[in-house]
Write a structure and sequence with these properties.
about 20% helix; about 650 residues; disordered N terminus; Immunoglobulin-like; binds fe (ii) ion; 4 domains; alpha+beta; ten-stranded mixed β-sheet; 12 helices; Purple Acid Phosphatase, chain A, domain 2
Length: about 650
Amino acid sequence: MKNLHILTILLLFIISNGFAQDVNLHLNSRAADESLPFNPILEPFYHGVASGDPLADAVVIWTRVTPTADEPIDVNWEMATDTAFADVIASGMFTTDADRDYTVKLDVVGLDAATTYYYRFSALDGTSITGRTRTAPDGASEHLKFGVVSCNNYQSGYFSAFGRLAERNDIDAVLHLGDFIYEYHTGGYGYTEEVGRGHQPDHEILELSDYRIRYSYYRLDADLRRAMQQHPFILIWDDHEVANDAWLNGANNHTPNEGDYADRKNAATQALFEWVPIRDNATQTVYRSFSYGNMADVIMLDTRHEGRTQQVDTLEDPTLTDPDRYLLGPEQMQWFKDGLSNSTATWKVVGNQIVFAQLFVQELDATFFDGARHLFLDTWYGYPTKREEVINHIADNDIDNTVFVTGDVHISLSFDISTAPRDTLVYNAESGMGSIAVEAVTPSISSDNYDELLGAGVASLLASIFPGYNPHNKHIEVVHHGYIILDLTAEKAQMDYYYLDNGMTTPDSPESFFTGFYTNVNENYLNPTDVPAPPKTTQEIPAPDPTADMTISTTTPNEDILLLSVYPNPYRDFVTLNYALAQTQQVHIALYDATGKLVKTLYNDRQIAGNYDFRFAAGDLVTGMYFLHLNTEHGGVVRKLVKE
Ligand SMILES: [Fe+2]
């Protein structure tokens, strides 16, 4: 952790003045969450809770229990219709262990449709925070609201947009369109100096333990924790859950010296299914659909890792339009087209990683910069034959009310979609006639957008000239961070853009409605509006947040250092520890044998408060049992370690 926040400085001041041994600090939630690398009040469920993949009668619930020994843990769970758990409608026990990184994920079935539930877990003498979730409707519904988000890069900035989403009480689900984590080393892509939020591990993530630690680090963020506590998430992955600009068998950010790509992808896939509330399936398929009754079918695509042919580098590549260049594998493409054709719901919501609409950027070479025409070859733009196949399928079958929601590019865009956007005989940009579907692209939660990547002047130039070449483009905004609220009724689909007032570099930024676009049912083109869609008539009761008002003891040993994970155990050659320090102090890490004799001191130095990834080689030890001691000035933890 690069930042010494005010609280940490205050703690150091108190400790250095010698009267801190039993100090208790009364803190509000923001100060505590931002100042401590973990929140001790959440023990042993430091990562909070989450839910996802809602059906009319089932929902996935999730937590992670931080173990005190590397052995299986029985975790009890219960679900109720009220926050006091007076009306428990389901309960059970789930055994987790190191094979799944002590994550807990289960499908609670037999639920009522369109119903809000509360759930919690207990283990190791602790109880988790309470989560709130909601099942999908079965049949009629009057009003649905979805959060639409993507691209939360921890080291770029604060997740305030998640914090604002958490405060809403009428969201059916949050559609997360990918880039839930980023794979780079600390200081790599997107690192914002003035924010100073590093992450763990420090290096680019390649192995299973790396991906697990990265997810763990992100999931300790208070804003993300609150959003996942309050709403079910429907997540798909984009490239950075594995590596930048990924395709089926490789990625732009994977080099031969980083090992076998298939191994890396397998590790990333395993960690994804462990650490996010996606419903398990035998083939670990990410594309899937959700019925929201008569109102909507939500079709979530995997344009990234399932069947994609490698990107071309230039628009002039002769293979660009080859019919056997795939974006979705043939099976997924057929499933997608069938999903659109067979849907009997009013709205077909397509959750998709990358910009779908046609992009006319060739002319930008002259007015923007030479080579601009190659900018978007990682999107559907680089797979024009497949994009036209989808557009023609919608047009030829007279499929109404398709709404694409998209992430990946970190800027706000919205489009009408037609078979020929620049042919005025086919599409009229003024009236919208000839548009067959619409698309809304969400800005990033916290990942560089174009002013941060290109500079403010270049970004505003792009935003000013792009619509001139793209008559079907209804909105382009390249500076703000935030999210979209997708609001569905029988009459219209509205997409409202909410932006952070203070950007991603200030914690806990407030937000404002910026602009909205809607399509009336069966009209399939966008209209602008200055008025956000109204809230639902019924507002749900939020799940209580015990971190909102709490007391933290700074000297209780268990609250001083937290050992989040030991990978692997038993081990052969290397051991990786992930631990967090609540305050800056001397840290001593040592290995003892079964008789209590010191084998080796691994670390003995001062460390600032933060989260640490510590790897050591111990392959030369004889097989057997050892004890790992992590000690600080105020206490410590011991973990049994087995050399095999
Ligand atoms: Fe991204």
